[in-house]
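Entry 12.
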Amino acid sequence: MTPHVLTAAALVGAALLLAACTSAASPDRIQPAYVSSLSFQKMSCRQLAAAKSNNDAALAKAVKQQQQAYAGDAVSGFVIGVSVATMAGQDIGPEVARLKGEQAAIADVRKAKKCG
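Predicted 3D structure (tokens):
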């Protein structure tokens, strides 16, 4: 093999490794991000219940989207060695983490206020 072919093969291999390292995470493995409870502390129990409901719906939608990205990356990574979903911007792991953190902050305030 010529040096150019070896260099090209090394670059392709490095790109494939990098793509494999940046695949979408499974939603159940994403840890909650820190979200301050300050924005929820002035809410009534009724408002907190509405915030919880909205957050639960948004989190369910984000988890579903993240699961699709995770599955897509698993398949494309196995078949072609590239995390297609992540490269296409479908990985929303940070959004899932934020929503999980918001869920925890709401739960903390509801508990402190004994909202039930």
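Annotation: DSSP finds five helices and no strands in the chain. Residues 15 and 74 are 16 Å apart (CA to CA).
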